[in-house]
Amino acid sequence: MFKTILFPIDRSRDTQEAVQTVVELVRLCQSKLILLSVQNDQIADPDLAAAIASFLEEAKTAFSAQGIIAETLLRQGKPAFVICDVADELQIDLIVMGCRGTGLTQEGINESVSNRVINLSSCPVLVVP
């Protein structure tokens, strides 16, 4: 059903809470998993890029320990737009992402990356609360 799943990750608690859902979906659907981290284009720091790359490798290793082979991508730009661009570029079948739960307020709706992805994505988006 979902041949390729995109999991945008960062160091947030929201990402950690979505991991088990991703593991279960990848196993159930026998999907290819792509881990994506987006470096905000306002912070062009090479040390930060290296730290994010290291974080991606740690995540890849953690999924590998669960028997899941993952590919990693590091991109730069505005997170919601980059996530949707990558999904289109790689013909992703499903995007799975965590949610901070700030979408219940008007401010949260405007600032929420997950809300923007839901509205911009051409593929299904599963938001794990």
From TrEMBL:
Gene3D superfamilies: HUPs. Residues 1-129 form the UspA domain. It comes from the Bacteria. Belongs to the universal stress protein A family. This is Universal stress protein.
